[in-house]
Design a protein that fits this description.
- By secondary structure, the protein is mainly beta.
- The protein has one domain.
- The strands form four sheets. Strands 1, 2, 4, 6, 10 and 13 form a six-stranded parallel β-sheet that branches. It has a four-stranded parallel β-sheet with strand order 3-5-9-12, with no helix packed on it. A three-stranded mixed β-sheet has the order 11-14-15, with no helix packed on it.
- A hairpin with a 2-residue loop joins strand 14 and strand 15.
- The protein is globular and about 40 Å long.
- The two termini are 23 Å apart.
Amino acid sequence: MKAAISSSVCDDGWSGASNIAELVADAQELNGTILVGDNSTLTLILGNGSSFEGTFGGEIENAKGTTVSTEIGTVNVILDGTSTWTLTADTYITSFEGDASSIIGNGYTLYVNGTALEGTK
């Protein structure tokens, strides 16, 4: 069974603290869009046969409906050799660690620090 992701990393309009998060999937099936605000950092670690079908975004509104981010922040992805990532949109991240052949492009492109990642399926 796939677990739908409902997650965002942002400051929700306040200031002062670091907005840094790490999401570790161990033998998990995840799907959805993970939101990372423009002043935030997320590291996604997929291990032990995990899969992620989804993308990242940066457009975030708080509970009052006020826009708190319009651009994606820093996103780092670490993918072990037993895990896969299936893209559901063109996706922009800051860094990637792993084997590009474990990424299923699904007709989309993964950009790492502005450059299309070569070697995806």
